[in-house]
Amino acid sequence: MPSKLSPEQIDRLRKEFHQEADKTLDQLFGQDGQNGLVTFNEREDRACEEGDRLTRWLLEEHLAVDASADPGEEVDCPLCGRPVPSASPEDVELEERKIKTRRGEINFERAARRCAHCRRIFFPAG
What is the pTM assigned to this prediction? Predict the structure, then answer.
């Protein structure tokens, strides 16, 4: 279940998004109004690259606020369905994970969980 963000957190993300969108616009238009792009293929390639970069940024930020990324959040084991008690968030080491998306590779952090019943380690979906 996604975390509910405060209005202040939403405002912070909105400002960061606008900064990322500004970078995207600069990559397309630059100082000369075309940023050296001449052919339609060059323009389309750059627009797609920048759109994909912005999409990856949005995905990474969305994953970062997902409640399942929180080591203090109790989750159910995907194998047996029993609740897995949460560890002390201060003691949990987050592991960087990579995932290949349709728009390229993104990074996010998750805490591994261990089901005492199944004796399996898993990463909560999110």
Answer: 0.72
13 to each of 18, 46, 109, how far by Cα in Å?
9, 24, 18
Q: How many CB atoms sit inside 10 A of residue 101's CB?
A: 12
Burial 8-34 (b: 16+ CB within 10 A, else e): eeeeebeeeeeeeeeebeeebeeeeee
DSSP-assigned letters across all residues of 13-81: HHHHHHHHHHHHHHHHHTTTSSTT--SHHHHHHHHHHHHHHHHHHHHHHHHHTBGGG-TTS-EE-TTT-
Give the pairing of strands 120-122 and 113-115. Answer: antiparallel
* Token reading at 85: 């008690």
Show me where the domains of the chain are located.
7-122
pLDDT tens per residue across span 68-100? 666 667 788 888 999 887 766 666 677 888 989
